[in-house]
Specification:
Helix content: 25-40%
Shape: elongated
Oligomer: single chain
CATH topology of the largest domain: TIM Barrel
CATH class of the largest domain: Alpha Beta
Amino acid sequence: MRRLRRTKVVATLGPASGSAETIARLFEAGADVFRINMSHTPHDRMRELVAAIRKVEKDHNRPIGILVDLQGPKLRVGAFAGGSAMLDNGATFTFDADPVPGDTTRVHLPHPEIFEGVQAGHTLLLDDGKIRLVATEASKQKIVVRVVVGGKLSDRKGVSLPDSILPFSALTPKDRSDLDAALDTGIDWIGLSFVQRPDDIAEAKKITRGRAAVMAKIEKPQAVLRLDEIIDVADALMVARGDLGVEMPLEKVPGIQKQITRIARRAGKPVVVATQMLESMISSPVPTRAEVSDVATAIFDGADAVMLSAESAAGQFPVEAVSTMNRIAEEVESEDTYHTIMKAQHAEPEATGADAIAAATRQIAETLDLSASICWTSAGATGLRVARERPQVPIVALSPNLATGRKLSVAWGIHCIVTEDARDTADMVDRACKLAFKDGFAKAGRRVIIVAGVPLGTPGATNMIRIAFVGADAAD
C-alpha cells in the first residue's frame, strides 16, 4: 500500500462511510487517517468505528491514524414563542438571562460566560454569520445590540463572538467524557475545537498524558492572534476553515490558511487543511474546477494533509471523493513547480543536533540522488524533523512502536513501517535496506541514507547518518 504522493488524506466517517467494507475501500482509495466527529457519534458507535479501522489496519499491515474530533463549546440562543423572530436592520435587540421564550425584541441567552466576555462594540454573529449584530450595552444581566444585518432568527441557532475572549475552557463536560472514552479505545489524535489560548491545549494534554497527540483546530480569531504560543504547545494544527470563515471576513481566510501552514511547517509539526475542499462531491461524482484548485493550493503550500468532511461522511460518493483527492495530490506533486515551491519555502534548521542532521540528510540524499531517506524513530520526532525538510526523496520511518506509526500517518511524506528495534548498527542498516526494498522504495544496487540515534532505542537521540547500498540479498 505504498502511496504515490507525500500529502496525506484525512477522511471523516459518517452515515455514508461507517461500514467495515466502506472503510476498507476508503483506505484502498487513499485515506491515510480516519476522522470520527464526536458531535454526531455516541461512544458505542465510536468504538465500533475504531474496531473496524483496526481490522483494516491489520488486514493491510499498515499503520492507520484515527483522529477523534471533540465537539467543543456550542453557543446557541434560546427559544422563541413562535419558533422564530424577524430581526430588522437598524433595530435594537436584547439578549438576557430570562428563560421566557423570546420575541422580536429579546431572547434568552443560556450562556453566562458570554455576558462575562462581551463588551460594547463587540460583534455577535448568529446562524453561521447570516445575522450580524453589534453590542451597544453589555452587563452581566443583558446585552443590548444593534442589528447591522438582520434576518429570520430561529430557535437554538448558533452564536459566534469574533471579538470576545470567553472565560471558559475549550473542553466541555461532554468533551471530557468523549475524550476519556476515546483514550480508552486507543485512538491516536485528538482534535481540540474552538481553541482560544495555549492553556486550552495544555488542559487537554494533562488529560491525555501522552496517550494521544493533540491537534489544535484554528477556527477563532483569538487563536490566530496567538499562533506562535499555540504551536509551541500543540502537536499539530488544523486550519478549520468553516468556523474560521464565520468569525472572520471570508476574504481573510486564504491568507490565514497560508500563515497557519507556514508556521506549522517552520515548527516541524503537522498541519491539516480542512472544510469544504470537495464540497460539491456530496451530491456529484466529480468536483468543480475551483475545488480542485483549492485542494491543489493547499498541497502547493506544503500542507501535511488535506481533509474531507461531509464529502466522505454523508455524501453520495465517499470513495470517489477520496480517490479524487488522491489523484489531485499525485498530479500536483509531479509538477516541477511543486518542488520549486518546496525549496523556496524551506525553513532554516533550528540550532539542534536533530535538525542539523535532518537538513544534512535532505542535502545528501538530493545531491547523491539516493533512493530514500530511512529514519529509525521511537517516538516519531526524528521522522517529523526529516519531513520538515520536505525532501524530494521518499521518507521511510522504521519504528518499534505501532502507536508511533499511527501518529506519523498524518505527517507529510512519511511511509511508516512497524518493526522490532535494531539489535546493533549492522542489523539497523541491513533491516533498513531490506524493508525499503520490500516496500518498493529502493532497488538492488541503489543507495539509501539511514538516520538513527545511538545508543539505539533512545528517544530524541538523533545523531548518526549512514549511506548504504541495497544489496542483491535485500529480497531474501
